[in-house]
Amino acid sequence: MNPVLTIVVGITVLTVVTIASGGVFLLRILTGHQGANDLQKSFFRAGHAHAGVLVTLGVLLATLTAVVDASPGWAAAGAIAVLVAAIFIPAGFFLSVLGQNPAKPGPMFASIWIGAACLVVGLVISGITVINAGVAAL
After folding, report:
1. 3-state class of 59 per DSSP?
2. What residue intervals traverse the membrane (predicted)?
């Protein structure tokens, strides 16, 4: 695996601690120990779920591309783009509904779209990189 990608994956694994603490925060909201309106509850749930799934997907892609002996640069680019999405998408969900009883998402909602673009780019790069490695191995 590319050394830079190895470092990024290691850092990513450590960030799972923040996802776990986000789960504790979400549990406090859902049990009524922390106030939140319905919009905030649904956005916090979505942010937490996207964080966990996208971090897992990014680590999976880094591992998959290393296993198939894909081009190290492209493998790193694809996995890192997905991991960037794992930052932007949850951030958009969480930060767009901060405040006292928001009625609609705020301007940070744009972060979700930026993250979605990073996700698509990362998936396309990773998919093509894995296919190329398979074709090269024929």
Report:
1. helix
2. 6-30, 51-68, 74-98, 110-135
Q: What's the pTM value of the predicted model, to 2 decimals?
A: 0.91
Q: How far apart are CA 78 and CA 50, in angstroms?
A: 18
* Per-position b or e across 79-90, b if 16+ CB within 10 A of its CB: bbbbbbbbbbbb
Residue 6's nearest CA partner among 54, 56, 63 is: 63
Query: Is residue 69 left, alpha or beta, with left meaning phi > 0 and alpha meaning psi from -120 to 50?
Result: left
Amino acid letter for position 98: L
Asked whether the beta carbons of 30 and 41 are under 8 A apart, the reply is yes
The domain ranges of the chain are: 3-137
CB-facing half-sphere around the CA of 125: CA atoms within 13 A:
21
- Nearest 5°: phi and psi at 134? -65, -45
In 3D space, the residue among 3, 11, 84, 96 whose CA is nearest the CA of residue 51 turns out to be 84
pLDDT tens digits, residue range 115-130?
Answer: 999 999 999 999 999 9
Q: What is the rounded CA–CA span in Å between residue 130 and residue 124? A: 10
- pLDDT tens per residue across span 101-110: 899 999 999 9
